[in-house]
Amino acid sequence: MAYWIGAGGSALFVLVFLIDGWRRPGYSPVRHPVSALALGTRGWIQTSNFLCCGAAITLGALGIVTSGRDLLLGIALGVFGLGLVVSGVFPMDPMRGYPPGSPDGDPADFSTRHRLHDYAGAVVFLALPAAAAVAAFVLPGMIWTAVSAIAAAGLLFGFSAFGTAWEDNSPKAGLVQRAVIIPGWLWVTAVFLHLASH
């Protein structure tokens, strides 16, 4: 059951931010990061998405650890899930035009909660490729080895590309982030579904 919950949480996270970002007034999925959806009057939707889906992934990871299937994979996915939870507890600051009426640039000083959100994001973006790298060695079959190894390399490259786009205030930073998050989170979904069926 824990694996199914983990798979559902990972897939639901993507579904929720895609639908909400598409329907959110003043929000640009191309420019703004997923985390910005936790701001504004409808911010509770993405906050809940972080908390619920992060908890679901953590529960799935706990299932891996307690089953004895692979301790390192379970720990890496658990850290990933907990990082999502912390990201929901500490939202980013309003900036770069969102929510509407916010300054178009960055604040002169970031709040403590924003810094904690950044730290949590760094944990998320490092734990996920680490989990994929571990999976390349522990999941059976050449397909899982190849897919997980490609995922690990692609995630590291993609998160680095997003970091650069974010620091440069690229108008396509949100698009770059989504190009990494969607396949990364779907890989997590696939891993949990695989474990649930074997």
From TrEMBL:
Top-level taxon: Bacteria
Keywords annotated in UniProt: Membrane, Transmembrane, Transmembrane helix
Transmembrane segments: 45-64, 71-90, 119-139, 146-166, 178-196
Transmembrane as UniProt keyword: yes
Classification via InterPro entries: DUF998
Signal peptide annotation: none
Record-given protein name: DUF998 domain-containing protein
